[in-house]
Design a protein that fits this description.
This protein is of the alpha+beta class. The protein is built from 5 helices and 8 strands.
Amino acid sequence: MQKYIALLRGINVGGKNKISMPELKTLFEDNGYEEVVTYINSGNVIFSSCNGDEEEIRKRCESAIENKFKLKIIVTIISADDLSAALCNAPSWWDKDAESKHNAIFVIPPATAAEIMEQVGTAKLEYEQVSCYGQVIFWSAPIETFSRTRWAKIVGKSAYNSVTIRNANTAKKLLQLLE
């Protein structure tokens, strides 16, 4: 049995794509997943599965969500091992400065972190820092200059459709809940 996290993209944001976390937990359990836990209202589901095929898990989750909630939600799956490796290899500057925003940007396959970074363009070093490990892009920017960064402006661009974003606290808490 392996542990995974399902990251649902764009739910419970601005009153759109509303999904109840208790109902989502039950949906995962009803679909054969075990040790199911949801974390905060933004669509983070921790679970165990005997099926080690992340693509098959993703398809099953998206289908179940669409059937139950009548919403077409993009889901990305990351294994406990992959999340642990990414966070253990996060750059030294990530989540260090209290006056900055720190995000873990999870790339949704088939896109790759390299492709997304190329689409967004070279980071503006005077305003932001960007690095990646596997399918996770680490990004930090001072709050006062946040609006000047390239990564703050990806909403509405094609790259934005291939990512789901969690802040550093959420990413670290997900790993903690896996252990």
